[in-house]
Design brief:
The protein is of the alpha/beta class. It is 35% helix and 21% strand. The protein is built from five helices and five strands. The protein has helices spanning 15-26, 38-45, 53-61, 78-84, 120-129, and strands at residues 3-8, 30-36, 68-72, 89-93, 108-112. It has a five-stranded parallel sheet. The longest helix has 12 residues, at 15-26. The structure holds [cytidine-5'-phosphate] glycerylphosphoric acid ester. The site of [cytidine-5'-phosphate] glycerylphosphoric acid ester (C2G) has 16 residues, from strand 1, helix 1 and strand 4.
Length: 132
């Protein structure tokens, strides 16, 4: 069983996120998503997700590619997670290219091309401009 792990906030879930999860799952048999908690978002990522951790977790667990959702509470937990969950591959979008290469001594690290033309920021901006 080839186990994949990935990390993210996955807020305002969109097809770019789904495409990442789909490609990540295609690399193995079991996909673990470490989902940024509300505190981690606020304190370390400077983000305020629209949906709470519990709401984002519920949505991710409904995705066919996702087998397990765990909390991402800090930047340092990745090595621990890879060992604890026996991850063979850590996958993340190439906006992080090179940032997690130190994990190569524990597992394969793969940076996948981001899906162009969609982002949470774009959604928020487009909604602000939209006049329904
Ligand atoms: N993503 C993508 N294409 C997009 C938008 C996002 O492939 N158009 C990918 C990102 O590269 C990431 C995943 O979807 O792999 C989740 O995106 P975010 O929630 O924005 O992740 P981020 O906030 O960058 O968190 O410790 C790592 C961080 O938790 C990553």
């Amino acid at each position: 069983m080839k186990r994949i792990i990935t990390y993210g906030t996955f807020d305002l879930l969109h097809y770019g996120h789904i495409q990442l999860l789909k490609r990540a799952k295609a690399l193995g048999d079991y996909l673990i998503v470490a989902l940024s908690t509300d505190d981690f978002n606020a304190l370390a990522k400077g983000k305020k997700a629209y949906h709470s951790y519990e709401e984002r977790k519920l949505m991710l667990e409904a995705i066919r590619y996702v087998d397990l959702v765990i909390p991402e509470e800090n930047w340092e937990q990745k090595k621990h997670d890879i060992v604890k969950y026996h991850a063979d591959v850590m996958v993340i979008g190439d906006d992080w290219k090179g940032k997690f290469d130190e994990l190569n001594d524990l597992c394969e690290v793969i940076y996948l091309p981001r899906t162009e033309g969609i982002s949470t920021t774009k959604i928020r901006k487009d909604l602000e401009k939209a006049t329904y």
